[in-house]
Amino acid sequence: MPAPMPRAASPATLAALAAAPRIIAVHYLEVGPEGQHRDAFLISGTPVARIKARFLDRLPAQLALSGVRDVAEPRFPYRELAAVELEPSAARLQRTYRSGYVFDFYAPWRYVPNEGRLTGKITVYARLVRLEDLAVLWARQCSFAAEPLRGPPVAGRRAEEIYTAAALERADRCAEDLVTHFLGGARP
Amino acid sequence: MRAWRVAALAAAVATLTSACVSLDTVEMSRPAVGPEGETQPWLDAPRVRLTAYARHDRIVSSLVGPGLIVPLPIIPLSPPAKDPGRHFWIDVGVDPEGEEFSLDVRRIRLHLPDRPPLAASAFVGPVMYDLYRTGQIAICHAYREIERAPAVVAMTELGCVSLRFDVTPPPTDARFSLGVDGLSNRGNLLAPVLIPFEQRRFRRLIWAP
Lengths: 188, 209
Prior knowledge:
The structure holds 2 protein chains of 2 kinds. By secondary structure, chain A is of the alpha/beta class. Helix content of chain A is 29%, strand content 23%. Chain A contains 5 helices and 7 strands. Chain A has a 5-stranded mixed β-sheet with strand order 3-1-4-6-7, sandwiched between helices. Chain A has a two-stranded antiparallel sheet with strand order 2-5. Chain B is built from 1 helix and 16 strands. In chain B, β14 (183-185) and β15 form a beta hairpin.
């Protein structure tokens, strides 16, 4: 997991973002490979694309950012082979986008038995990475309760088919917590 | 009496913690490029790396035995007979720089001895490349994905396509190659990359409870 940062994004980071010609937002695949676990599948358990969208909806208005590119297709969450942490490799982002800043949104995969439950709180991790030197300028996590579910979290289903409206509201608040932290406590 | 109890306890612990090990000798084909010891060799092309994995590896010999602390695979076991099947699957890993690569699967050709070049009949992907080789038998994380007719696919990051050729898999000592044509960057077609395969043999130790 990315180490949570105690502070909001620094003024220098906010200024750099406001002047940046290229800001990209990505999220990672929510349903993972099944491998040998034939009676279960891997799922991140989070409507992470929705949380990313909610975060972006609120963020540019505060920072007067323009032109944040929201990449619709999820990325594969590759990790560095030697990495102790579980967050996706920032170097992979650099190989794809080369320069600029990337917000990425990630929830660890976990095994869920077929038509299983998503017990406990679901956590999503967000980072801001500067691609030139792979510096993580900001990182934060938020959590929300996913259950009760509307339907089983199977591959190919949209978040709205899996989560109840109440759970999605909690996920939205999770995204707003990220924005609040990023901006240093000011509610968006 | 005390010694007897210690021995009984040791036997119980040994029984509970014992495991079996299997030492398999596996034959496979791998791209005949790169250093000898490289696990999965990659070929470089302009702004992209390529690799491939032919899914026709087979166990040629196997030894099994106890695996308590020190593995002792000493009992020979006949490897199960395996029907080679009618389809030859080859995984292709693509690691592009940038996000504007695409791969036209229709242009890829399998070159087998004494046969005309063969196009893929179906494929799955792009799927996640198995960076850590957890799948063991492939490089593509493609298990339940739906096969589809060959088409152009976007390769926006490290990914993998698994190609189905309608031919009986050749033996691992056959000389064959995969002609990867159809890679484009920003719409510009790259020169075809020929991936020759050669036989490799390796041993793997598998623990089982």
